[in-house]
Amino acid sequence: MLREDYETKFTTLNQPFEIGIPNKNGRLRLREIDIKSLKTEQLYPHRQVIRFNSTFVEVMDSWEFIRGRATGLALPMWAALFFAIFMFLFAIYSLYFKQVYWSIAIISCLTVALCYLVYTNYRMAKYDLFGYTHYPIRFNRKTQKVYAFSPQQQKIIELNWRDLRFSAVREGRYDIELRASLVNADNIVEEEIILPYISFDNNDFIDQNLAFFKAYMQGDDLKSIDAAIPEFFDVYNRKETFKESFERVYMSNDVLNELAMQTRPAKKDISGVSMMAVIWSLTILVRRLGIFFSKIPQWPTHIEQECQIDSNDPYDSTGKQRHLAPLVFTSAEKCILFIGWLLGTSIFIAFLAGLAYLSWNYR
């Protein structure tokens, strides 16, 4: 994720590279990670690797964990706005025959304002709903370059690995992100990539995640690096399946087990996940909606040429099936999830019914 991608102010772009000082959007850079002294004995790529070979490793970006959120916010707003616009147009039509022209002028201005709100919501959701199915980041160990999609600018950012400064940034109350920043001579962040793994208040995992990229870009032991990758989420030139969407959304909600581990955990946080069952079940739907309307990202020809894979590359992951054990729920776990979903849905419907009742009685 680069610059003002998705127009969410997630980056620290064009702001000072400062430690311990929250920026205007609440992002706190906890510490800078010294890449030179970073140890690479323990590698933590997590489950974000798309492709791996002797030339490059391709991973997801941090938008993976909040995919569908912008769409989920925009759709209800669009529904309400289009309904209001329809009612205003009907009012204009009725007033026209009554020749109440001053009312027509006022309602017309309000209709234009509502149309502008529709447009602003479109700007918020367009990179999620009508953008790319995913936004990959590619690390080329031979050219020592890092490539990443910049959806808002509709271009690819190319950065030199050795020019990047790495830091752990707190996003929200507990989430910690790993960021790669290009900082100029005035200590201002010119470009920034938010790397794929988000840790739940665990700095060791952040260091080990960066250690994976350092080992790949600066080391030679590709066998050990390959062995550290638990699975390939190979969505290169294809869209993820519904099953994959379900597992990715579930992983981002089971923060104590699925998100915290790069192997399939022995236990699940069913009670915690069931409390949010309504939200993450809706997240699956809006994620699928975004993937349906989005296009598959295509790297430019010159980057594909720089990332040419040797025909006899022993580490080429293309076509390899490396997956974790299937995500399976027992009958009791399914029952708990269903009860959580049912309770959440009931509360939501009761809330809407209450609003309707109040609006009807106090109209």
TrEMBL record:
Pfam families: DUF6708. Keywords: Membrane, Transmembrane, Transmembrane helix. Residues 115-308 form the DUF6708 domain. The chain crosses the membrane at residues 73-94, 100-119, 270-290, 336-358. This is DUF6708 domain-containing protein. It comes from Acinetobacter vivianii. The lineage of its organism: Bacteria, Pseudomonadati, Pseudomonadota, Gammaproteobacteria, Moraxellales.
